[in-house]
Design brief:
By secondary structure, this protein is an all-alpha fold. The protein has helices spanning about 5-10, 35-45, 50-60, 65-75, 85-95, 100-110, 120-130, 135-150, 155-170, 170-185, 195-205, 210-220, 230-240, 245-255, 265-275, 280-295, 300-315, 315-325, 330-345, 355-360.
Length: about 375
C-alpha cells in the first residue's frame, strides 16, 4: 500500500449505528485531520524520511491516523529501517486512541505475531473494534477470522455480514470475498454466478489481483459472460502485472497455446519462471516441461527435473509423475547434479511440506 493511500485510509473513521441492514450504506467521505494534511504535504516533496518525521509528530500529538502511517512505514521500511516491534507499538498507540485503521493493523500483528507474541483472541477483538469503527480492511479481516474460526468460534453468517459492509464501502477485497460467497453458496446465499461475477468484476476494477484472475477465468470458460479468450488474456495480464502468481501461469498458458494472444514460447517461459519465483506449483511444472522439450528456453533435463521436483514437493501430481519418468532417462551424473541443485534451493521447493503446514489455513 502506498503512503498516499494510507493517509486516505487513516482518515476513514466511521461509526455504524442502528440495526444491521442487508445492504449497509456506504460510509461518508473521509475527513483529513490537520496532522494528516501535513503528512500529505510532506509526501509531495518525495522525502520519505521527512514524511515519517511529520507523521511521528502527529502521532505523538494523538492523531490515530498518523499512528497507522508511522506503523506502516516501520513495517515496510519506508523512510527508516524495517522494525516490526516499532510498527506494532505505533499500531497499538493508534488502537488505544480508538482509530479504526490502527485497530485493524494492531489486530493483524496480534494474529500473525508481527512484532509481538501472537494472541489470536485479542486480535479478533481488535479486528471487531476496527470493523465496528468503519474500517473496510478490518471488516474484511474480521470476516475471514469469523469464517475460519481464528481467535473465536467460526461464524460464517457474521462473516457474510462484515463482507457486505466492506463491499458496500467499495473495498475490493470485500467485493472479491463476497463474490466467493455468492459463487459457492455460503452463509445462506444461493449459488449465483451472476452475482459472483458482478462483485468480482467490481473488485477487479478496484485493483484486486485475485479478482482480475477470476474475471479472466469467467471469460475463459464462458461462465455467465460470453466466452472471450482475448478478454481473458487481458485480465490475466492485468493480474500478472500486479504480481499475481497464478495469473502469471495462466497468462503463460495463453502464450504457449496461442489462445487469446499470438503464440510466443519465450514469453510463456518467462512468465512460468516469474510464477516459479513465487512458488506457484503449476507454473513450476510448466517451466519444467519447457526445459525438457527445449521450447522457449534451452533444453536442459537437469533443470527440467529440478522444476518437476519443486512442483511435486508443492503437491503437484503431474509434476511428480514427470519427475519420476524423466529420471529414468537421465544419466547418473545428471541425476546427481539435479539433486544437488534441488538441495541448494530454499524451502519449500526442496522438500515436501509437512502435513500440518500443507493443511494450515491460508492468510
Amino acid at each position: 500500500m502506498t503512503i498516499r493511500s494510507l493517509i486516505i485510509a487513516a482518515a476513514c473513521v466511521v461509526s455504524w449505528t442502528g440495526a444491521a441492514q442487508e445492504t449497509p450504506p456506504a460510509p461518508p467521505p473521509p475527513v483529513m485531520t490537520d496532522a494528516l494534511k501535513a503528512v500529505a504535504a510532506a509526501l509531495q516533496k518525495g522525502d520519505e524520511a521527512a514524511v515519517l518525521a511529520v507523521a511521528k509528530k502527529g502521532a505523538e500529538a494523538g492523531d490515530g491516523g498518523c499512528c497507522a502511517i508511522v506503523g506502516q512505514m516501520y513495517e515496510d521500511g519506508r523512510g527508516t529501517k524495517k522494525d516490526p516491534a516499532q510498527a506494532f507499538a505505533w499500531y497499538e498507540k493508534g488502537a488505544n486512541l480508538g482509530h479504526a485503521e490502527s485497530c485493524a493493523h494492531y489486530a493483524r500483528c496480534l494474529m500473525t505475531g508481527l512484532g509481538t507474541k501472537a494472541d489470536p483472541e485479542k486480535g479478533a477483538f481488535f479486528y471487531q473494534k476496527g470493523a465496528e469503527g468503519g474500517d473496510a480492511r478490518a471488516q474484511v479481516w474480521m470476516a475471514l477470522a469469523e469464517e475460519r474460526g481464528a481467535g473465536r468460534p467460526a461464524n460464517i453468517i457474521e462473516a457474510r455480514k462484515w463482507l457486505e459492509k466492506a463491499a458496500a464501502a467499495g473495498d475490493p477485497d470485500g467485493l472479491f470475498h463476497l463474490s466467493r460467497f455468492h459463487n459457492n453458496g455460503l452463509a445462506g446465499l444461493e449459488k449465483n454466478q451472476g452475482n459472483a461475477f458482478k462483485y468480482c468484476f467490481k473488485a477487479a476494477l478496484g485493483g484486486n489481483g485475485e479478482a482480475m484472475n477470476q474475471v479472466a477465468r469467467f471469460y475463459q470458460e464462458g461462465v455467465v459472460v460470453q466466452r472471450d479468450p482475448v478478454a481473458a488474456t487481458g485480465w490475466f495480464n492485468f493480474a500478472a502485472e500486479l504480481g499475481h502468481p497464478e495469473a502469471m501461469t495462466n497468462l503463460g498458458v495463453s502464450y504457449e497455446t496461442g489462445i487469446g494472444v499470438k503464440r510466443d514460447l519465450k514469453i510463456a517461459a518467462r512468465l512460468y519462471a516469474d510464477a516459479a519465483k513465487q512458488e506457484e506449483k503449476t507454473g513450476i511444472y510448466h517451466l519444467g516441461r519447457l526445459f525438457e522439450s527445449g521450447q522457449g528456453c534451452p533444453k536442459d533435463v537437469v533443470l527440467a527435473w529440478v522444476n518437476y521436483s519443486r512442483a511435486a514437493n508443492l503437491g503437484h501430481a503431474e509434476g511428480a509423475k514427470a519427475r519420476d519418468a524423466l529420471k529414468t532417462k537421465m544419466t547418473p551424473a545428471q541425476v546427481k547434479e539435479a539433486e544437488k541443485k534441488l538441495a541448494s534451493l530454499p524451502a519449500p521447493s526442496r522438500a515436501a511440506p509437512k502435513k500440518s503446514d500443507a493443511d494450515a489455513p491460508k492468510p
